[in-house]
Amino acid sequence: MPLRVVLVDDHRLMREGLKGFLGMRGVEVVGEGSNGRDAVRLARELRPDVLLMDLSMPEMDGLEATRLIKAERSEQVIVILTASEAEVDLFEAVKSGAQGYLLKSLEPELLVGQLEAAARGEAALTPALAAKVLAELARTTQPPPSAPATPHSPAPSPEDIEPLTAREREVLDLVVRGASNREIAEALVVSDNTVKYHLKNILGKLHLHNRAQVVAYALRRGLDRP
Question: CATH: 3.40.50.2300, 3.30.390.50, 3.40.50.11740, 3.30.540.10. Which one for 4-134?
C-alpha cells in the first residue's frame, strides 16, 4: 500500500511541487489544504498516514492545528515542514504532538524516507535538528525549582508517572539514542511487534503521544540514565 499523505501549505506552488515530487516516488497525496482549519478537517475526513503541514498559515497556524488534531485523534501522525529554524518553533511543535520537524531546505531525496519513518512511529528529524533537541534538553535536564503547589495549580510530580520496567528502560535508552524499531529489535533480540508493545506501554505510562515527545521527556527528566 502506498503511503497516504495530506499536504497543508498556504502556498499553492509549494503544494503542487510537493505533490508532483511525492507522486513520482510512489506516495499518494490524498488531500490538500491551505490553512490549519483545512488540516483539522482533512485529518478528520481522510485519516492519512502522515499529515505534512507548514507552520505559518492564515486563519489557523500549524501549531494550533496540531494541538486540535492530536486532541481529537491522538494517533494521527503529523510532520511539520517549515522554513523556520527557530528552536522555539521546533520545541513547540514537538510539545504540541508533532512526530517530526523538517526544514524546506531539506534535500528532496531525504523527504520520503523521513515521512516513511514518521509513519512507522519514529521521529522525523534531520541530524542537525536532532542535535539541537539533544543539546537543549541535555542543558535543561535539571528543571528549576517549582513554586509551591496551590489547589488550582498542583506542581507536577514524578510520583504521578507509573514506573517503567527494566525492559522498557532498555527500549527507552535506545529510542533516545536514535535507534529505529528494527535496530531496537536486533539489539534486544526480540520481534518488531514486541518493540511496538513496549513503546506503547512507555507512551501510556509517560502520558505522551509519540516518539519525539518520549525523547524530549526522557532527556528532561534524566530517564535515559541508568
Answer: 3.40.50.2300
